[in-house]
């Protein structure tokens, strides 16, 4: 196990402890991380008690079909946008038993960048069953692995902070 694995597992353990104590379930909707957040979560023994499911949706079609993201939102804002990740997060709640969901979509590189969305641009959303949805966009430096790792770390870290696990 690497230091990165240990760090992510510790973070996921914090999240899982809180979710278990409150009887909540988590769902994930991932694009640029390709399931890495779900991998970090399921590295924790007993995570089936608090992790319902994860969705990996790379294409527009998958985001529409699996998570209910509107085609008009994808075409107007692009997959890497707060509008889309907000719909991904709420779609993950709709398609699961989860109480809270997180969603990520970004440009990990080395290709795929545009003038207004350079490599490292990542959009995040967190949605709760009570209707609260928050989102943000960040830009991370580094290669594909560094951007993806920073995305996983940030998504779980903010989740931990927002639910009060840390």
TrEMBL record:
Natural source organism: Pseudazoarcus pumilus
Residues annotated as domain CinA C-terminal: 9-161
Gene3D superfamilies, per the entry: CinA-like
NCBIfam families: PncC_domain
InterPro entries according to UniProt: CinA-like_C (IPR036653), CinA_C (IPR008136)
SUPFAM superfamilies (UniProt xref): CinA-like (SSF142433)
Name the record gives this protein: Damage-inducible protein CinA
Record Pfam families: CinA
């Amino acid at each position: 196990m690497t230091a990165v694995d240990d760090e992510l597992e510790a973070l996921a353990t914090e999240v899982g402890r809180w979710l278990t104590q409150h009887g909540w379930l988590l769902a994930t909707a991932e694009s640029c991380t390709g399931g890495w957040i779900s991998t970090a979560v399921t590295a924790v023994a007993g995570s089936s008690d608090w992790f319902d499911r994860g969705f990996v949706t790379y294409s527009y079609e998958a985001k529409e079909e699996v998570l209910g993201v509107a085609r008009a939102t994808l075409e107007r804002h692009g997959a890497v946008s707060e509008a889309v990740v907000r719909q991904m997060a709420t779609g993950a709640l709709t398609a699961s038993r989860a109480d809270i969901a997180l969603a990520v979509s970004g440009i990990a590189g080395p290709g795929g960048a545009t003038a207004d969305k350079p490599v490292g641009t990542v959009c995040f959303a967190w949605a709760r069953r009570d209707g609260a949805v928050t989102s943000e966009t960040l830009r991370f430096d580094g290669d594909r692995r560094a951007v993806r790792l920073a995305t996983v770390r940030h998504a779980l870290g903010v989740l931990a902070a927002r639910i009060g696990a840390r």
